[in-house]
Design brief:
Elements: E1 2-7, H1 11-22, E2 27-34, H2 37-51, E3 56-59, H3 65-75, E4 79-82, H4 89-99, E5 103-105, H5 120-123, H6 126-131, E6 135-138, H7 146-157, E7 161-171, H8 185-193, E8 196-200, E9 203-207, E10 213-218, E11 222-229, H9 233-240, E12 246-252, H10 255-266, E13 275-277, E14 280-282, H11 284-291, E15 305-316, E16 319-330, H12 331-338, H13 342-359, E17 367-370, H14 376-386, E18 390-395
Parallel strand pairs: 1-2, 1-4, 2-3, 4-5, 5-6, 6-17, 7-12
Antiparallel strand pairs: 7-15, 8-9, 8-12, 10-11, 11-12, 13-14, 15-16, 16-18
Helix pairs in contact: 1-2, 1-13, 3-4, 7-14, 13-14
The structure holds NADPH dihydro-nicotinamide-adenine-dinucleotide phosphate.
NADPH dihydro-nicotinamide-adenine-dinucleotide phosphate (NDP) binds near residues 34 and 83.
Amino acid sequence: MASILIIGAGGVSRVATTKCAMNSSVFTKITLASRTISKCDAIAKDIKDKFNVEIDTATIDADKTDELVTFIENLKPDLVLNLALPYQDLTIMEACLQTNVPYIDTANYEHPDTAKFEYKEQWAFQDRYKDAKNIALLGSGFDPGVTNVFCAYAQKHYFDEIHYIDILDCNAGDHGYPFATNFNPEINLREVSSRGRYWEEGKWIETDPMEIKMLWNYPEVGDKDSYLLYHEELESLVQNIKGLKRIRFFMTFGESYLTHMKCLENVGMLGIEEIEFNGAKIVPMQFLAKLLPDPSSLGPRTTGKTNIGCVFEGIKDGKKRKIYIYNVCDHQECFKEVGAQAVSYTTGVPAMIGAKMIATKEWSGEGVFNIENFDPDPFMDELNKQGLPWTVKELD
Ligand code: NDP
């Protein structure tokens, strides 16, 4: 039915590529291209051994629009799933525009030298995608991604107006290392060490990093300290949810993670500007990322669960209502199924589902869309079928 080009061959890509292979009636041809072809080949081999599905592999430098355009013109895929890093979003979007192929990603564009977490530069493609009658689907991971779909689902089925949303992201996994990140270290540490921000009554309110903390009881996990962070889905949700008065994002961190991070920050290891060292130019954060365990190697040793969801408060039929929609995922179960831990799994599965929505034309349109712009129902059905079942709980 559809030929998909997947770019990037890290932890998230391993899951999404495997899940595309498990949906081979939709994805009849799968090409995996990345900077390091050996990583593509390793994923392709595991999929061939386990599911007897062929994956074509190739080398691509996704920083180079011209190279991408030539590659896409030769391959003629029906859609491109960008699972490289956020730094490559604009070049891949541009190449998809020039070749008129639908574009899907899981994270907003990041400037290599400033941490901004904003959609501005991707939303700037709006008119050109509309004119080309092409589609870009932004943020089809878990958060952003599934959390936005939970918001659209709550808005459609449970509320007339949603006033408060707290997005609650808990990873209670244990990988046994004193310090490691569960997805790309550079992106993860940039996000966590930035100033916090939330939206209330039409205004953005800034906080110091980790200034606001609350204890939340996560179903199937237990009580965890949760810290307010800025997260990119807030930017689109404040525009798309009716009647919103406040939206915040919280993530759990253990003491050891926070102590290591503070120490690394204090000694300058989280710097993203180039410095000179022994005649070579290095970026401290990139050097640190080289030293830390590769997130895709954490799968076999990570135990425990993730719980990511949203708590909504608002009004239905004139009465106050509070509900919690969440998914629980077990690291070891994910590893058994696709050879990756739950953080990669919870991102890679929705990336495949987003691609499936576009491939099957269940979701269609012209322009640049955030995921909550579409009907959440078929996506929610797929989550249940593809390994990320969700629960809706009424709270008092
Ligand atoms: P990894 O670092 O494990 O993988 C990134 C892959 O991209 C690597 O294979 C890397 O190549 C490749 N890559 C980097 N630069 C280029 C380039 N110029 N050209 C071609 N390929 C390139 O990251 P993850 O798998 O952990 O994350 C993938 C994406 O998912 C990221 O954008 C991340 O922000 C996003 N994410 C989204 C989440 C969500 O819930 N929405 C949650 C977690 C992650 P090489 O192997 O050579 O380094």
